[in-house]
Design brief:
Blueprint: H1 7-16, H2 20-33, H3 42-49, H4 56-70, H5 87-92, H6 100-115, H7 119-122, H8 132-139, H9 158-178, H10 184-199, H11 205-228, H12 232-249, H13 252-268, H14 272-285, H15 292-308, H16 312-327, H17 343-356, H18 360-373, H19 379-395, H20 399-413, H21 419-431, H22 439-451
Protein name: Sporulation protein
């Protein structure tokens, strides 16, 4: 039976700048201090790296040896020897940490298990009640001092923060173009290898604030891509921890964005009241600091939640407010991460709202505007809006046109890696069931059956 390589141990050794032979001798030394005669060579280290699990006592010696060498504390989990992720550790991901250093530890635990597709992490359940504490704590938070790094690993400067932000933007573009499943492992690895060590470094107050904000952006994208990939419990945990980093950074606008993302996910999962609360908290907590564009996006999330809840009046009001703010916005006030929220994106939100409210003619007006303005490079956005358009024709009792549009959407989607997209396709197939026998509908169903057997 083949074993999985212990990539977590390899990463810990890299961070500690420790070779196989070096670790072997250090482990022996730690064991001797504990009164244990332990024969350990580079061959044993090689076997550990290949996935062989040592005895519990030896694992503790390894963690202690690496901790001393690196100047930071490594737990058994930090060296890949804590066993599979426990439910207790998963629960910690749902908690809003009192101390900022706890956030870094939790995010490392999530990313490491994410990287090896740990079933307990991948299949973790969403806990709707877990959104409440972060929402309230963030709303009532006050400025706080940043943790003092030990400075033993790296001195962090403005250029390091710029590099993190630029790299995050690259991953964000890949997400928009190819879906959350594309290059996601590389994003998680980037956080583990490049971002996390910076949080333990030495920095000035101003650089530290920017660093924690940039790290929160990375964690936000990890959460968003997990959501798009259907890993909802993992996504919820990433976003909660990202919100805590944004709070530490004093970045209220980014905190609002994270609550907006939580609202988006809650709405998608059918938790409409919580989606409304999260979107409103995003607005209230970032008043006076959020740009017109970001505030419009928060209002759009509220509108989407009202639409899911079947409240036409509240949806229309929130959408009107979003449009008014968007029309008067000053793009110079916008952070880089909101650049995706343009006229096409706002029109797309309107299309989703009126699709959910079963007002197909109004929805089609928004669809037309969105299709006209969307850059063809954004395959996921175009696939979503085409499928929304197809749904509006089903609602009008025009299955032929719906099937034709849906066929175009599936063909244009290509190798899009998005479970949200697949749900749109699945939902449309369900809507079209009553029209079985129709030539265009059957042709669409055959296309879906061949391309996506699991949802046909």
């Amino acid at each position: 039976m083949s074993r999985m390589p212990n990539l977590v141990l390899a990463e810990a050794m890299r961070r500690a700048d420790c070779s196989n032979k070096g670790l072997a001798s250090r482990v022996q030394l730690v064991a001797q201090e504990e009164g244990v005669i332990l024969r350990c060579t580079h061959v044993d280290v090689k076997r550990w790296l290949e996935g062989v699990q040592p005895r519990p006592a030896t694992a503790k010696f390894i963690a202690e040896a690496l901790s001393r060498k690196a100047g930071v504390r490594f737990s058994l989990e930090d060296i890949g020897m804590g066993g599979v992720l426990t439910p207790t550790t998963l629960e910690r991901g749902l908690e809003y940490a009192d101390a900022v250093p706890e956030v870094g530890s939790r995010l490392l635990g999530l990313t490491r298990r994410d990287l090896v597709d740990d079933p307990l992490a991948v299949e973790a359940a969403v806990v709707p009640s877990a959104w409440t504490q972060p929402l309230l704590t963030w709303l009532l938070s006050r400025p706080e001092p940043l943790p003092a790094g030990n400075g033993m690993q790296v001195n962090v400067g403005e250029s390091d923060v710029r590099a993190v932000r630029m790299t995050t933007q690259l991953f964000m573009k890949l997400d928009f173009q190819f879906g959350g499943g594309h290059a996601r492992a590389a994003l998680a690895q980037y956080y583990v290898r490049d971002v996390s060590p910076l949080l333990e470094g030495k920095f000035t107050e101003s650089v530290g604030r920017e660093l924690f904000s940039a790290a929160a952006e990375v964690a936000q994208l990890l959460g968003w891509t997990a959501y798009d990939l259907g890993r909802h419990g993992l996504a919820q945990r990433y976003m909660i921890q990202a919100l805590r980093l944004a709070q530490a950074a004093g970045d209220r606008m980014l905190g609002g964005r994270l609550l907006g993302n939580m609202s988006h996910q809650a709405n998608y999962l059918g938790n409409f009241q919580q989606a409304i609360q999260l979107a409103r908290a995003a607005q209230e907590g970032s008043k006076g600091v959020a740009s017109g564009t970001t505030m419009a996006s928060f209002l759009a999330m509220e509108a989407r939640a009202h639409a899911g809840n079947g409240d036409d009046a509240a949806c229309s009001q929130a959408l009107r407010e979003a449009e008014k703010l968007f029309e008067s916005r000053n793009v110079a006030d916008d952070p880089e991460w909101i650049s995706y929220f343009d006229d096409a994106e706002l029109a797309g939100e309107g299309a989703h709202c009126f699709r959910d409210l079963r007002k197909p003619l109004i929805a089609q007006e928004f669809v037309g505007r969105c299709l006209e303005l969307t850059d063809p490079v954004y395959a996921r956005t175009l696939a979503f809006i085409r499928l929304v358009q197809a749904a509006t024709y089903v609602h009008q009792g025009e299955p032929c046109q719906a099937a034709v549009l849906a066929t175009e959407a599936v063909e244009l989607a290509g190798s899009l890696k998005s479970m949200r997209y697949l749900r749109y396709v699945s939902d449309l197939c369900t809507d079209l069931k009553e029209y079985r026998g129709n030539r265009e509908v059957e042709s669409f169903r055959e296309l879906v059956s061949g391309k996506y057997p699991s949802i046909a």
